[in-house]
Design goal:
Two copies of one chain form a homodimer. The first copy, chain A, has 145 residues and is mainly alpha-helical. Chain A contains six helices and two strands. Chain A has helices at residues 3-25, 35-47, 52-58, 63-75, 97-117, 123-141, and strands at residues 79-83, 91-95. Chain A binds a DNA duplex (30 and 30 nucleotides) through residues 34-36, 51-53, 61-69, 71, 87-91.
Chain lengths: 145, 145
DNA sequence: TCCATTACTTATCATTTGATAATAAAATAA
DNA sequence: TTATTTTATTATCAAATGATAAGTAATGGA
C-alpha cells in the first residue's frame, strides 16, 4: 500500500463525500435561514447544550459573529440561552420547541434521501458499510490528536 | 444492521470527514484567494480541461458568478481559457504554469498533513483503510444515479 | 482590594458571495 | 433564412460573512 496512492484515494473520497453531503442536504429548505445559521442549528441539535464559545470553535467563526447569528436565531425563537448558575458569564444554548421541530424535519428529509441511497443494498452490503465506517472513523477521522 | 442506526453513524462520519478536511486544508494559504476561488482551482486542477459550464454545475454556482471568478483568476494569471475549435462558444479552462505551481504546493501541504495523520498506521491498518475507502466509495458515495 | 482574564455582546466596516437582467456570439433546428 | 437554444459575458444590486474595535460583567488570582 503506497502512501502516496492512499492520499490520492483519500482526496477523491473526501470530494465524493462532500458531493453526496451536498446532494442529501440540498432540498432541506428552512425558510430564510442562511447556510451558516443552518450549520449552527445542526451543531446545537446534536451537541446541546453548548456555549457560544464552543459554537465559535467548532464552526470556525469569531465569537462576535457567532453572537450575531445566535441573536438572529433567538429572535426567530429557534434557540434560547440559559446562563450558567455556577459561572454567570457562561450561556448555554438550546433549541426551543420550534427549533427542535424544524431540525427534526430537516434530519428526516436528509434521512429519507439517505435511505434512497442505500435502498438496494443487501444485508451484507449494509454490514460492510457499517464496518467500513467504523474502520475509517477509528483509523483516520477520529484520531483526536 | 438497523438502517436508522446506519444513518446516525453516517451523519457522525460525514461530520468527522468535514472536520478533518478542514484541518488538512486550513493552513493552505494562497495569497489573496477566496474560498470559492480555491475550490474552483482545485476542481480545475483535478479535472482540466473544463468548461465554465462544468465548473458552474460542479461548484453549484451560477454561470455569471462563475464567469466573474474565472475572470479574476485569469487576471492573476492562474488560469487561461482556450476556445474550442469545433464549437466556438465553448471555452476550455486550464491552469497556467503559475496556477499549476500554486496548486501543487497546496496539495503538497495537504498531503504532508495527511501523512502525519496516518504516520503511526501499520501496514495492515493502511490496507484496512484502503479497503474501507473502496467499499464506501463503491456502495455509498459513488452511486452515480 | 486590585488586576488580569474569560465569556459574551454590540457596533461597524469591508469583502465575498448570490441573484438577476441584459447582451453577444455561435450553433442548431424549423 | 429565420427562430431558438446554448455558452458565456458584463453589469448591478442585495445579502451573507468575515474582521476588528470597544465595552460589559463575572471570575479568579495576587
Amino acid at each position: 500500500m503506497d502512501k502516496k496512492d492512499l492520499f490520492n484515494q483519500f482526496v477523491a473520497f473526501t470530494t465524493a463525500v462532500h458531493q453526496v453531503t451536498h446532494e442529501l442536504t440540498q432540498n432541506v429548505k428552512i425558510d430564510n435561514i442562511t447556510p451558516v445559521q443552518y450549520k449552527i442549528l445542526e451543531y446545537i441539535k446534536v451537541s446541546q447544550p453548548v456555549t457560544p464559545t464552543e459554537i465559535s470553535d467548532c464552526q470556525h467563526m469569531s465569537l462576535p459573529n457567532t453572537s450575531r447569528e445566535l441573536r438572529k436565531l433567538q429572535e426567530r425563537k429557534f434557540i434560547e440561552k440559559i446562563s450558567d448558575t455556577e459561572d454567570r458569564r457562561k450561556h448555554y444554548v438550546c433549541l426551543t420547541k420550534t427549533g427542535e421541530k424544524i431540525m427534526e424535519d430537516a434530519f428526516a428529509c436528509i434521512e429519507e434521501r439517505f435511505q434512497q441511497l442505500i435502498q438496494y443494498s443487501s444485508k451484507k452490503d449494509l454490514e460492510d458499510i457499517h464496518n467500513a465506517l467504523n474502520i475509517l472513523d477509528e483509523k483516520v477521522f477520529n484520531t483526536k490528536s
